[in-house]
Amino acid sequence: xxxxxxxxxxxxxxxxxxxxxxxxxxxxxxxxxxxxxxxxxxxxxxxxxxxxxxxxxxxxxxxxxxxxxxxxxxxxxxxxxxxxxxxxxxxxxxxxxxxxxxxxxxxxxxxxxxxxxxxxxxxxxxxxxxxxxxxxxxxxxxxxxxxxxxxxxxxxxxxxxxxxxxxxxxxxxxxxxxxxxxxxxxxxxxxxxxxxxxxxxxxxxxxxxxxxxxxxxxxxxxxxxxxxxxxxxxxxxxxxxxxxxxxxxxxxxxxxxx
Length: 258
Fold this sequence. Notes:
Layout: H1 12-22, E1 30-31, H2 33-40, H3 44-57, E2 60-63, E3 66-69, H4 73-83, H5 86-101, E4 106-111, E5 114-120, E6 137-138, H6 144-151, H7 155-164, H8 178-191, E7 194-197, E8 204-210, E9 219-226, H9 231-251
Antiparallel strand pairs: 1-3, 2-3, 4-5, 4-9, 5-6, 7-8, 8-9
């Protein structure tokens, strides 16, 4: 069988090194070379060269057999955030609306079958917090952010993205059939907001609205509240607040740089 011709403009070694960086997350902050090789799909020698190169460059730390990320990786994200003036244009808007709504607000995009958090408000009075920060990934299928991001795509592309994503059962309420999830995505697309109830975390209702316009890179903002007696009134207030926040963020043209 003939192997596909490799693009000579692409450095496969560099790409494999980036794959090594990408396997570290909250669930696996430390790994051995064998674990890195298994998770990247690389052979042991290739994974070893990539990892040790990153150690020498200062992006990985090695202690015995274990390797972990160093704070230097934040400089890579910092360049993007500063270039797009997140600190001046995005963070103040999120903080302002979070204070008014008394809950956290998150800005997110799609990233390889998961939701990537780009920014989050710093309000201290929010009733719900998962402890996630900018750069964290959360599930696509069972979060309001993920559902709204899928709703920003065409039905065909949304189905394709969902088919390639993991669909675990986080709670008893988590939908696991692709058709059921796509039905909720279609509803979010028609009503221009997404709601999930206890699918990612028991007792937590998530809300999300689109920030991007049709044809742009899908970007959404969202928040969560605990389920309670005044849920309906709180939900209406929160959705209205998120829509106002999204409208203000559109004025900053932040989506243009994504």
